[in-house]
Amino acid sequence: MPDERKICLSGRGLTKVFGGGSQKCLAVDHVDFDFYEGEVISLVGESGSGKTTLAKMLLGLINVTEGEVYFQGKPRDIHTQKKKKAYWKNIQAIFQDPYSSFNIFNKIDTVLLDCIHMRGGRKLPNEEKVDLMTEACGFVNLKFEELTNKYPFELSGGQMQRLMIARIFLLKPKILLADEPTSMIDACSRATILDMMLQLRDEIGMTLIFITHDIGLAYYISDNVYIMEHGKLVESGCADEVILNPKKDYTRRLINDVPKIYEPWDLSTV
């Protein structure tokens, strides 16, 4: 039976080269992939493997050196600022460092209102806008009345990550790229943030792409896992297949590097 799922984002021969001559760095090397609607994907690799560079190309934050990104089956066109903004309505990101994700001069009200305006709600009555912001904050267990007129830097790291998810709740993109979204918060907040993102995926049917070096996290949350090494996708498949039956030595090493509390740690590869 053919796969009836729709491809929302794909890449063919995606390549990114920084610099030139003797200083040339091949960050992403002819990558191919198909991401489906409603799927949870993890791009896994060590620091420097090219996963964040690939994410930035998918977001349109850096130019593609070679290859093509396809959005909803058509070549992506973001050659003008207007087209780029239209694309960003459909693809958004949560970044690793919540402290650098907000403009420090904008109050939380402005952050959330910008999301409402981006979705075409600029002319809504003020009371309706407040209701939308209250609902978004409530989704992430924050109280809007306690946040209004505050700046993001007055919040804790966990609260700022929740505010990032409240933005996504208002924007309702088709694709969310989460680049190490829980690496700077404590373990209790980490589980809560992940559950909120998965709940949001279930509610609006968006595709969720995690960028992470944590292969345990990838196994816990993902439908499919892609392993990156030196800019290449070296292994991919469903989470059980990749993690429980890895084919590549690099994947096995990533799995073996996860500390296990019930057996001695092997530090020989460090």
Would you kindly provide a written description of the structure presented here, covering whatever features stand out?
This protein is of the alpha/beta class and 270 residues long. It has a single domain, classed as P-loop containing nucleotide triphosphate hydrolases (Rossmann fold), CATH 3.40.50.300. The protein has 10 helices and 10 strands. The protein has a 6-stranded mixed β-sheet with strand order 6-7-8-3-9-10, sandwiched between helices. A 4-stranded antiparallel β-sheet has the order 2-1-4-5, covered by helices on one side. Strand 7, helix 7 and strand 8 form a beta-alpha-beta unit. Helix 6 packs parallel to helix 7. It is globular.
Q: Average pLDDT across residues?
A: 87
Tell me the CATH topology.
Rossmann fold
What share of residues are in beta strands? 15-25%
Largest sheet: spatial strand order: 6-7-8-3-9-10
Assign the CATH superfamily: P-loop containing nucleotide triphosphate hydrolases
The biggest beta sheet reads: 6 strands, mixed
Radius of gyration: 19 Å
What is the class in the CATH system? Alpha Beta
Quaternary class: single chain
Summed up, the helix count is 10
Overall 3D shape: globular
Number of strands: 10
Instruction: Report the CATH architecture.
Output: 3-Layer(aba) Sandwich
Number of domains: 1
Low-confidence stretches: none
Give the class from helix and strand content and strand pairing. Answer: alpha/beta
